[in-house]
Design brief:
- This protein is α/β, with parallel strands linked by helices.
- The protein is built from 14 helices and 13 strands.
- The strands form three sheets. It has a six-stranded mixed sheet with strand order 4-5-13-10-11-12, with helices on both faces. Strands 8-7-6-9 form a four-stranded parallel sheet, with helices on both faces. The chain has a three-stranded antiparallel sheet with strand order 2-1-3, with no helix packed on it.
- Helix 4 links the parallel strand 6 and strand 7.
- Helix 3 packs parallel to helix 4 and helix 4 runs parallel beside helix 5.
- The longest helix is centred in the middle third of the chain and has 15 residues.
- The radius of gyration is 19 Å and the shape is globular.
- The chain starts with a strand and ends with a helix.
- The site of zinc ion (ZN) has 8 residues, from loops.
């Protein structure tokens, strides 16, 4: 059923057979990406044929890595609404502003997409104990899909992760360890213990399949826009997996003959208190150094160092997009504006993109006639500590 040909290192292009549990490239330590025989996929996967398919991300079955349908671990992830935001659009002087609302996924964030695929593959390939460092939402998603798959989840989170994320992981049966530090410290703890404990490392971009789930964001956008990609995409970047995944989807869709060469200008939005990609982008660097004393209420953006930084920076530059940092106070203020004008209780990470949108409009970097998509990556309901100010 699957059209996977092999895994390929995103940095040194080394090639690996699919069909065995793998983390990163054993030669250079960089992320592995899944490659497909797209000509073969195109025989049964067509734009028209999609219309009658299941209303979740598994509608793109031929470009997903799972061999047998029976091995798909699903809670109904993906195929989220792409909403027109007329009032907000008018407020920032845009004729077409859209919100991809990822809060409607299982566990209320876009992390469900990646974990659905990664847990399906990890279980199929024989892993029984899955470990992840998480800023919050990835942990909840792993806990849910691991429960559904009947395998163990071990979630490592900073102690000050939003309480909803911590409670959610526990109620979903995960083993939760709170660390006095950042997500990078959580990752280090897993790396230290995983061999002894028999854990498979599910860190984003340190296994090949979470990005395959995230890439469906790109497929869905194209399909929902009738195969005309938007001019601009604003995405809240932590590890950047969604950006990398969408970019991969665009290339795959071009190879499938579904879209042309044009790409949206991709903007990575970060918090001023943790903006390694913005700093590296502005300095013209190819990769990003670790951001010290990272802090922001947008916990998903509190990622001081991302393994896929070189991929993110390359996408931002190739697409003629950019990187922009915004303040926490602005996120909280703008979240209420979005809520009151569009009816969505958005997460601070999503709010960051709306702040960025205003700044980019003021700076003349987005023209009034351009079609803009903003990602709301999760629900505001998990961030009551940040929002519930009386
Ligand atoms: C709500 C939310 N938005 C954005 C992000 C960042 O996502 P990515 O790691 O794909 O850049 C996260 C990551 O934890 C998140 O939870
Ligand atoms: Zn390599």
């Amino acid at each position: 059923m699957t059209n996977v040909t092999h895994l390929e290192c995103a940095s040194c292009n080394a090639s690996y057979a699919a069909g065995e549990l793998r983390n990163v490239c054993t030669i250079c330590g960089m992320p592995l990406l899944v490659r497909y025989d797209l000509a073969r996929a195109a025989r049964s996967l067509t734009r028209d044929g999609l219309k009658s398919r299941r209303a979740d991300m598994w509608r793109y079955r031929e470009v997903m890595p799972v061999e047998n349908d029976a091995d798909i671990i699903s809670l109904g992830e993906g195929w989220t609404p792409l909403l027109q935001a007329r009032r907000l659009g008018a407020a920032v002087g845009l004729s077409e502003l859209m919100i991809k609302d990822e809060s409607l996924n299982p566990t209320q964030s876009f992390k469900a997409r990646g974990m659905s695929v990664a847990v399906s593959m990890a279980k199929y390939l024989g892993a029984t104990k899955l470990a992840v460092p998480s800023a919050g939402n990835a942990g909840g998603a792993l806990a849910a899909y691991a429960a559904r798959a009947g395998v163990e989840a071990h979630v490592f989170m900073p102690r000050d992760t939003p309480r909803a994320n911590i409670a959610e992981c526990r109620e979903l049966g995960a083993n939760v360890t709170l660390i006095d530090g950042l997500i990078t410290d959580c990752a280090a703890e897993i790396a230290r213990r995983k061999a002894n404990e028999g854990w498979f490392d599910m860190s984003t971009l340190k296994e090949p399949y979470r990005v395959e789930g995230k890439k469906t964001l790109g497929y869905e956008l194209a399909e929902q826009l009738n195969w005309e990609l938007p001019d601009v995409i604003l995405y809240p970047a932590g590890g950047g997996t969604g950006l990398i995944g969408m970019w991969k989807a665009f290339d795959e869709m071009e190879a499938l003959g579904w879209i042309g060469k044009n790409r949206p200008r991709m903007f990575a939005v970060q918090a001023a208190g943790c903006a390694p990609i913005v700093r590296a982008f502005e300095a013209g660097e190819k990769s990003a150094v670790e951001f010290h004393d990272a802090h922001t209420i947008a916990s998903g953006l509190r990622v001081p160092k991302a393994i896929g930084d070189f991929l993110i920076l390359n996408i931002l530059r190739t697409s003629n997009g950019g990187a922009i940092a915004v303040d926490d106070e602005e996120m909280i203020r703008v979240a209420r504006e979005v809520g009151a004008s569009e009816g969505l209780f958005i997460c601070p990470e999503g709010a960051a993109c709306f702040v960025a949108l205003k700044l980019l409009r003021l700076a003349g970097k987005i023209a009034s006639g351009e079609r803009v998509v903003v990602f709301n990556t999760g629900s505001g309901i998990k961030y009551l500590e940040a929002y519930d100010r009386g």
